Amino acid sequence: MYSVRVEAGFSAAHFLSGYHGKCENLHGHNYRVRAYARGADLDGSGMLLDFGDLKKALREVCEGLDHRLLNEIPAFQDSPSAERIARYIFDSLAGLLPGAPLQAVEVFESDTSMARYEP
Questions:
Q1: Catalytic one among 24, 27, 60, 67?
Q2: pTM of this prediction?
Q3: How many domains is the chain built from?
Q4: Which of 1, 45, 63, 108 is the most buried (most CB within 10 A)?
Q5: What CATH number is attached to the domain comprising 12?
Q6: Do 48 and 101 form a contact (C-beta atoms < 8 A)?
């Protein structure tokens, strides 16, 4: 089995509605995002998925989130948790790279806190 990973980042603000604690207040993060692809088959060039294609798609998705108030994006249902952000990015990548062997997306809110979405 082969696996590839690329990274990108974005900065954004959010608050968690329905949550009682300091994260219910408006705050921001410098998010780090990792996207993974996994599969058993390589293409004619000997690659699972071109790093450049995956990086370009991930950067495009992250640019759409950069310097935004994430609560204003309908997909997050007004509570953009790291888990929902990871799912959103995965689904967006799948739309940009149909048929790609995407495995998972990890979203880091800090060096020590991460959520992962894997269908």
A1: 67
A2: 0.95
A3: 1
A4: 108
A5: 3.30.479.10
A6: yes
> Does 24 participate in catalysis according to the annotation?
no
Answer whether 33's CB lies under 8 Å from 89's CB.
yes
Alpha-helical runs (H) found in 44-118: 51-65, 82-96
The 10s digit of each residue's pLDDT in 48-67 is: 999 999 999 999 999 999 99
pLDDT in tens, 78-103: 799 999 999 999 999 999 999 999 99
Return the HEC string of 8-43.
Answer: EEEEEEECCCCCCCHHHCCEEEEEEEEEEEEECCCC
**69 secondary structure, DSSP code:** B
Active site residue 62: no
Known catalytic residue at 60: no
